[in-house]
Amino acid sequence: MSKPVVNVALVCGPDCDMESQAVRATLEYFGARVFMYWVGRPNDFISVLSGDDLYVNTDLVILNFHGNEGKFVMPELGDDIYEEGEPGGDFGPHEISSFANLEGKVVFGNGCSLGDPALAKAFLNAGCRIYIGPDDYPNGNDALMFILRSFYEIIEHGKDIKEAYEIASTLSVEMSMYKYYEHG
Description:
single chain; alpha/beta; Rossmann fold; 6 helices
């Protein structure tokens, strides 16, 4: 295997496996090395958010989740299934502020309403260099195409993150709901 162009952490939330598989296959075809993270419980997500479980040379993080009202939709577990201290419910700005440590990372929150300004601010305060996500509810195909086009521009054309975002944002009217937030 030749050296990958970029190392990507692809974090698959509940019921997002088909889209995540499409993203993975395409990014690997483009030449990226993709590390899959499957979230079955809140502590799985916390391990990624904290950086504890991230591959050391990860360049970009895609959080491929369903979102609702600016929160990552988490799996609902029975009360007897949660581990001690494991939070229940969806993850919004409070949980991101409590658990995230993503110093210098570029993060795509690819799910409905995950570009909410308060959520983006929590990620930037947790050390993210750039955070991108939709502030509304995109069609699933649009969410997939936004990620694929962004990475196509980054990998195939050597665009920086902001240039790739700007190009992907012009694919359709729906793409204008994707917002770009930068630390600083």
